[in-house]
Amino acid sequence: MGRATKVVLAYSGGVDTSVCIPYLKHEWGVAEVITLAADLGQGDELEPIQQKALQSGASESLVVDAQESFVKDYAFPAIQANALYENRYPLSTALARPLIAKLLVEAAEKYGADAVAHGCTGKGNDQVRFDVSIAALNPNLKVLAPAREWGMSREETIAYGERFGIPAPVKKSSPYSIDRNLLGRSIEAGPLEDPRTEPLEEIYLMTKAIADTPDTPEYVEISFEQGIPTQLNGEAIAPVKLIAQLNQIAGNHGVGRIDMVENRLVGIKSREIYETPALLVLIQAHRDLESLTLTADVTHYKRGIEETYSQMIYNGLWYSPLKGALDAFVQKTQERVLGTVRLKFFKGNATIVGRWSDNSLYTPDLATYGADDQFDHKAAEGFIYVWGLPTRIWSKQVRG
Q1: Residue 310, marked binder
Q2: 397 vs 106, 216, 394, CA distance in Å?
Q3: Among 117, 135, 188, 212, which one is most buried in terms of CB atoms within 10 A?
Q4: 165 is known to lie in a ligand binding site
């Protein structure tokens, strides 16, 4: 791969991305490194991160507030698709990667860079998500991944950084690897690498332990328009605030923890802990509202689409042609997904206790077993005869 002269580096302020700056310049001959930190609601103060990048040798340090786009353009489509990887993980970290890739490409075009870079290692999913997304958005840009190639241990990486004035972490390094944004936290490594080990309570930040949750239930109503959440308890609320508020409510009741062994794209299994309170609750509520407003055949067919959709997000194919085609299908299904879902939060559970919609396909006088029943029971016998006819013919042939 030919080396670059001007690079835009995805920057988090951690050891690896900080060391990438002098490494790119001194080992790979890059003349200028511009860093880009995306504010996705991770809660860090980005001003110190910006200063650290400049002190580490960056010529310019960009900070982009992308929270609203993160929710509206990435999280909401995933909610409309009920996207749960392996039917459990709502893709809180994976959804951030195509957005960061887009910001990198836009910055590279604005500043005339001939390459972009990231600090991913060769073992995880994020390298694939970045590389493929960048290639989809601008196939002419080089993608550099120093941490994938430098072969240094963490101690060696810290020592290399110190040579160029990057201070070593002042506090004792946590054994865990943690990624956080507005949608949730992912925690891995350290003691969690043993799937038998129960996670310590100290790793959780967004969700309370069951023992610490309120002793009285809390009811919340979430309203949707075209499959997008727009209101909490009857009040219109902006996208970012909706996620933040629902994170707080659900997390306060211990809702939103996932402990799973997942299949990484690179072929290994990984034990992951996630905290995704709002995202899990929104998918749960949205799927329930679909049961009220979509026909049976659309609902059943969409389940297969949802599985493919979630795999594509996880595998870094957000900007692929198939993902675009699936988006069109999902958007069509959402036209009538309007209404409200009522949830009861209590002791680690978010239980749906009611739902209603102006587009409801639920017909009380057909569903009731009471005196108002309008269903023609006499029609059932003929229906069953025709429905079961192929089975009856098969049985006579096989059993004689």
Answers
A1: no
A2: 66, 61, 5
A3: 117
A4: no
For residues 377 and 300, state if they share a domain: no
DSSP H helix total and E strand total for the chain? 14, 14
Is 357 annotated in some ligand binding site? no
45 in any annotated domain: yes
Token pair for 224:
């949707």
Which positions are annotated as active-site residues? 16, 97, 126, 177
19 is in an annotated binding site: no
Side-chain-side CA neighbours of 3 within 13 Å: the count stands at: 13
pLDDT tens across the length of the chain (400 residues) = 457 899 999 999 888 999 999 999 999 999 999 999 999 998 777 888 899 999 999 999 999 999 999 999 999 999 999 999 999 999 999 999 999 999 999 999 999 999 999 999 877 889 999 999 999 999 999 999 999 999 898 889 999 999 998 888 766 667 888 889 999 999 988 899 999 999 999 999 999 999 999 999 999 999 999 999 999 999 999 999 999 999 999 999 999 999 999 999 888 999 999 999 999 999 999 999 999 999 999 999 999 999 999 999 999 999 999 999 999 999 999 999 999 999 999 999 999 999 999 999 988 776 667 777 777 888 889 999 999 999 999 999 898 7
pTM (two decimals): 0.93
